[in-house]
What we know:
The complex is a heterodimer.
Chain A: H1 2-5, H2 24-34, E1 38-39, H3 50-58, E2 62-63, H4 68-75, H5 77-86, E3 94-95, H6 101-111, E4 115-119, E5 129-131, H7 134-152, E6 157-161, E7 167-175, E8 181-193, E9 196-202, H8 209-225, E10 230-238, E11 245-251, H9 258-265, H10 269-277, E12 294-301, E13 303-304, E14 310-311, E15 314-315, E16 318-320, E17 327-331, E18 338-339, E19 346-354, H11 357-369, E20 372-374, H12 380-388, H13 390-393, H14 401-405, H15 418-440, H16 472-480
Parallel strand pairs in A: 1-2
Antiparallel strand pairs in A: 3-6, 4-5, 4-6, 7-8, 7-10, 8-9, 9-12, 10-11, 12-19, 13-14, 15-18, 16-20, 17-19
Chain B: E1 2-7, E2 10-19, E3 22-27, E4 30-40, E5 43-48, E6 51-59, E7 63-68, E8 71-77, H1 78-90, E9 96-98, E10 103-108, E11 115-116, E12 121-127, E13 130-135, E14 140-145, E15 152-153, E16 158-162
Antiparallel strand pairs in B: 1-2, 1-8, 2-3, 3-4, 4-5, 5-6, 6-7, 7-8, 9-16, 10-12, 10-15, 11-14, 12-13, 14-16
Amino acid sequence: MHVRLADEAYYIGSSQPSDSYLSIENVLRAAVQSGAQAIHPGYGFLSENADFAAAVRDAGMVFIGPPAQAIRAMGDKAAARKLMQQRGVPIVPGYQDSDEDAALARAADRIGYPILVKAAAGGGGKAMRVVSSPAELGEALGAARREAQNAFGDQRLILEKYISQARHIEFQILADTHGNAVHLFERECSVQRRHQKIIEETPSPLLDPQLRAEMGAAAVAAARAVDYENAGTVEFIVDPGTRDFYFLEMNTRLQVEHPITEVTTGVDLVQLQIRIAAGEPIPFAQQDLTQRGHAIECRVYAEDPANHFLPATGCLLKVVEPQRPGLRVDSGFGTGDQVTVYYDPLISKVIAYGETRAIALRRMQVALREYALLGVQTNIEFLVSVLEHPEFQAGRVTTTFVERELAGWKPAAKSVRPEALIAAALSEMETAMRTTVPAAASDNDPFNPWERGGYPRRLTERPESGGTGNGSGSGKKRALR
Amino acid sequence: MRFVYQTGEATFTVEIEKHNQGYSARINGEDYPVELLKSEIGELSFAIGPHEHLVYFASDSSRRWVFIKGETQVFESSAAVRTRRGADRTEQGEKRVRAPMPGQVRAVNVTAGELVEKGHTLMLLEAMKMEIRIQATRDGRVHRLLVEPGQAVERDQVLAEME
């Protein structure tokens, strides 16, 4: 999709990400070849790789993102936790001092199970494991190390107390090269499966103005602690009972869910990223920013929600995106595109906006019902089930909601309507007819109804404006004589 | 023309005839007059009496997807269903260990002939940066390993056979 949209495209290597999108050398070579002045790293792949940021700058180009040392400081979860502690930003109880299995096991016993194993270099839910007993720790550490090595090229792990009833609320921040830093309010991302967000919204139904202001100030303090520049996100978990919040990590890049912030604040984050990278100051102050209305994002994945959300692959044979007021669809795939095993199975993001949460929610429900994605299994029906759930409707969802409330989810049994069967049969007949048409329509007769569209639009029209459908050959002969 | 569609366990037969004024369809002995309003690649609209329907559709060699009224129906052609049924019958039940998703074999932890317990991790599969364990489906000896580390596998591909 991005290749089709681009004015120029350069080959950066094979489908194996390690040979292309994760290859600093290949990406830089393409950048130099194209004469680019700057590189926007997107999200995923090298976007949080400090060596890449440094290499881009060493090559004389601008990296549209934070300085390498800020990525390094936040990317190392162990060091970041220590730094936040020093700056008075509250952190989750955990362990980050040693990567030895024995030391991790002792720390896990001390902190108490269940415990969360995370990659020290990680993010995005990759290489993350919840371990509920000491017996499972060994294998979980092994698997997490391999995943961490593969995803981030760094196998070190840290531990965190697993807070099971938690809300995931993050703050968007922007900082420029002139010492200005602001936050653009929160995004609540508590609906997760396999520790990955699937639905995000803003404002958070949990926050009130006071807690919002406190967390926003903590987010700005976190960014300032590492001399941050450009766009970033400070993630917190919030205990809904006590309303205490803890620093989780900072994502030193644009987030997948950034559109909901854009539509509620009216700020184009990517444009500002580029302007900040070009040395411009942020064109507004904290007090100039307000949240207007409510926005929800649903991530549409190629996966099977009834089978552990395992990724699905295949060809998207037909895609029709919903188009409505208050709707934005950011997609990476269109009709004819292949969903492969090499990349994240995120097909698109549907963003619905409304003056109130209820309106945004309703618009999202309509949008998902109008979204046709044929050929590959998707999570659309599952997303609809989440949106319809009373707990989601009430805005009370915590990060364990999916496994707790929707475990064993199956798509609703559909009754097969006669019109669906008629549609199937008609589509087969029409397709069969269409494939026989081109051979007959090989002349240059401008009035030949079989030419252009290949088939008249209305079959019930009179013979002079189209065929009666009783054989294309006879219809054509009449037109010629 | 007669079309047979299968979805899940249910089989449906649609008879559809074309005549000058449009189509007529017959399902379960009931007749439906169908007026085709628009026909494009992957898109149809038609009316049954006063009710208009917009439909998106697609097909591959064995399945046909129909999106109508916010629902996606997947039909298998009866020929495809027959082949699949046949394959099921000859399958050696739980002796075969299959890939639950398409991906790449990361590691193979056992050798042919090794004695394992049910649930033992035989190999690791990875797709889209997610790692999953492939476990023994029963107690017993690993009869054959059919894949090697680094190999790409399709969903449902047989990875190993147990004795």
